């Protein structure tokens, strides 16, 4: 996100929204200037956008409480069945594609077989901090795309070896299990933590105000304990690997490591995500995601 600092541990939150339950956590962890004076009155302990610490693609996901990529071939989306009224390729012209466009075989293999909602955040190139996000839902025979939302990512772009303070967003596939924000729950089915701990002030990299950046937040399960508030500071791989990587409200400037969307699009995303569909985010520069 835009900026964050470490904060003391806080008491467990009260649950709201859907019933909380344990999650598989990060599915695929690929991770790796000083920040201009940015004053935050927010979670005094977050280093990514929301809280600090990440993981490396070469780390064992099991060590993070996540799920290892067992049997990758089983995670690739199944092709839709050809229909009699199909195209020359054996698929009706109106049928959703059998695979998500722009994702190569390796990236698709990282997506869990159970995932039926996939948020794809595609960076323009490795060093760019502008990107776009699309929410896909599996229809049973293919992937149906939602609208394209403008997005931002970290100041220096993307990395598959994320470290705290590198000002790059981690490339990978991660589960989405928990939400929260300064504003009341808009009606999401994800567990939602409404807390004053999401308050933030100060300015971002381009002098833009950070106020409201954490009005709505979805925690990306990157070096964190799934099934907890986005404010939780547990970092299975340690603070030096970064963390606190969130989807949050755009403040008109690049982030420290998070992905940001407009407030309306964050609200739309919160209303759309369904734990029963095992949502994940696939994020990275376009070339990396094509692998």
From TrEMBL:
Region (Disordered): 1-24, 50-104
Extent of Basic and acidic residues compositional bias: 1-13
Comp. bias (Low complexity): 67-94
Protein's UniProt name: Lipoprotein
């Amino acid at each position: 996100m835009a900026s964050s600092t470490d904060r003391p541990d806080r008491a467990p939150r009260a649950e709201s929204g859907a019933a909380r339950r344990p999650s598989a956590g990060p599915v695929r962890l690929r991770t790796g200037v000083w920040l201009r004076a940015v004053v935050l009155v927010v979670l005094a302990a977050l280093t990514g956008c929301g809280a600090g610490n990440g993981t490396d693609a070469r780390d064992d996901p099991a060590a993070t409480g996540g799920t290892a990529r067992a049997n990758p071939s089983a995670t690739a989306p199944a092709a839709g069945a050809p229909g009699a009224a199909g195209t020359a390729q054996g698929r009706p012209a109106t049928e959703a594609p059998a695979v998500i466009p722009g994702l190569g075989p390796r990236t698709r293999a990282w997506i869990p077989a159970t995932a039926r909602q996939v948020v794809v955040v595609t960076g323009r190139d490795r060093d760019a901090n502008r990107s776009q996000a699309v929410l896909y839902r599996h229809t049973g025979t293919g992937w149906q795309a939602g609208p394209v939302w403008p997005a931002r990512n970290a100041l220096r772009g993307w990395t598959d070896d994320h470290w705290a303070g590198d000002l790059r967003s981690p490339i990978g596939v991660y589960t989405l299990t928990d939400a929260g924000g300064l504003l009341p729950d808009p009606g999401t089915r994800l567990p939602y933590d409404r807390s004053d701990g999401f308050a933030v002030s100060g300015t971002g990299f381009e002098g833009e105000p950070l106020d409201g950046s954490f009005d709505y937040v979805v925690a990306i399960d990157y070096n964190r304990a799934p099934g907890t508030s986005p404010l939780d500071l547990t970092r299975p791989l340690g603070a030096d690997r970064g963390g606190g990587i969130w989807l949050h409200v755009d403040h008109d400037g690049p982030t420290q490591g998070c992905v940001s969307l407009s407030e309306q699009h964050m609200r739309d995303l919160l209303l759309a995500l369904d734990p029963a569909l095992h949502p994940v985010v696939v994020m990275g520069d376009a070339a990396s995601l094509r692998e």
